[in-house]
Structure formats: structure tokens, C-alpha cells
Amino acid sequence: MARVKRGVTSHAKHKKTLEAAKGFYGRRKNTIRAAKAAVDRSMQYAYRDRKNKKRTFRALWIQRINAAVREHGLTYSRFIDGLAKAGIEVDRKLLSELAIAEPAAFGALAERAKGALPKEG
Questions:
Q1: Is residue 73 within 8 Å of residue 111, measured between CB atoms?
Q2: Which parts of the chain fold into alpha helices (H)?
Q3: Which domains occur in the chain, in start order?
Q4: Which one, out of 18, 42, 49, 85, has a CA that is 20 to 30 A from the CA of 7?
Q5: C-alpha dihedral, 94 to 97 to 103 to 104, nearest 10°
Q6: Residues whose CB falls within 8 Å of the CB of residue 96, separated by 6 or more in sequence, listed in order
Q7: How many whole angstroms separate alpha carbon 77 and alpha carbon 18?
Q8: b/e map of 81-99 (b: 16 or more CB within 10 Å)?
Q9: Separation between Cα atoms, residue 28 and residue 2, nearest integer Å
């Protein structure tokens, strides 16, 4: 059986890792041992933060909706409750976009939500 020399595959693996480490600071970009550790960790951060990005954006949308709906005399939770009772199904991303780009349309939704809520008193 012929002897297998692995220089080509090792070089290819190293090259792939160093390409992924491009732009890193110091030895992390050009030394294979440091680059491999840095790239592995960067991949973990990237995976984790793809999930965190969704949370962060949802929180931003909720803050925008809350700020916009307070101008109409409601709080965020009462607004969402009113929309549910009125049978209006609009996601938070769209609501925040409406609040920014189309204040009149958002105001109409706020009035519908307010009308669906029971009167206090």
C-alpha cells in the first residue's frame, strides 16, 4: 500500500483557518495555533449572537411601539391587549415601522385598540 503524505490537506486546512482569521489583530491572524483558537471562538460568538440579535430587535420594536402608543394615551401592554381583543393581528416589527413611517395609520390602530378595551371607572 502506498504511503499517504498529508501536506496538501494540512496546508488547505491551515489556509482555510487563516482566511477566516483575516482582519484579526496581532498573531491571531497569521499564526495557525492562535488563529484556530480565535476562529473557533468567533464562530461560537457568531452562532450565539444570531440568536441574541432576534431578542435585541424585538426589544427595540417594543420600545418604539410603547413610545408611539403613549402619545395616544395608552401603554404598550394595554395597546397589545386592545389589538388582540379587536381581532387585529399585526406583528411588532410592522407596528414599529408603522409608528415611524405612517403615524396616521398607527393612530388609527391605537384608536381601534382603545375602543376594544373595557372602559375604566
A1: no
A2: 7-20, 32-70, 76-86, 92-101, 103-116
A3: 9-116 (1.10.1900.20)
A4: 42
A5: -40
A6: 60, 61, 64, 65, 68
A7: 49
A8: bbbeeeeeeeebeebbebb
A9: 37
47-79: pLDDT as tens digits: 999 999 999 999 999 999 999 999 999 999 999
Give the cell for residue 32.
495557525
Residue whose grid cell is 375602543: 115
User: 70 and 78 in contact (C-beta within 8 Å)?
Assistant: no
The amino acid occupying position 29 is K
CA atoms within 13 A on the CB side of 32: 7
- Rounded mean pLDDT for each run of 10 residues along the chain, 121 residues in total: 90 97 96 97 97 98 97 95 94 96 95 89 49
The C-alpha cell at 25 is: 489583530
Give the C-alpha separation, 2 to 67, whole Å.
Answer: 72
